[in-house]
Fold:
Amino acid sequence: MEGIRKQAEGAIREFLELFPMPKGSLFVLGGSTSEVLGEKVGTRPSLEAAEAILEGLLPPLLERGVWVAVQGCEHLNRALVVERQAALAYGLEEVTVFPHPKAGGSLATVAFLRFQDPVMVASLRAQAHGGMDIGGVLIGMHLRPVAVPLRLSVRRIGEAVLLAAKTRPPLIGGGRAVYTREEMLRKVEEYRQGLP
Structure:
């Protein structure tokens, strides 16, 4: 379990280096502890593996003031565990259900037991700024519309494939639009100098 904790911690630290999430942003975590242990999703839930993953992932996120949402399994329609304050801040609909290893999954169960004031919500309403999917449990519906994959050096947690994503605002405009501050400043300078 210590190896799983270290993999999770290494992955989130690298994630935050590549995408330094600001205070108040929303991170979504989905995962299958069965997949982490080398089994088919849903066949071998493990509270111990969930503990190890959360021990590695949560501290760096919470130190930054990032809200964490942990997705439950399909038996709960992928409802998520969040802190009550996060649900209020993001206008999320609370639902009444308590996760357990066979309905909700081990990660959601352990998150519910660890969070200070946990609630279950039906959806994040596509508001998460970034997230991780451990074992192919599909978190995309919780991310903001323009998700960008993050290629981490940590490719697996245990035996489960690790996928990470950040989001960015949509790029709008046409041929005249610019997408970086540097490009904008160059265009302003060109305008001031009367260049075409």
The radius of gyration is 19 Å. The domain at 2-192 is CATH 3.40.50.10360 (Rossmann fold). The chain has one domain: 2-192.
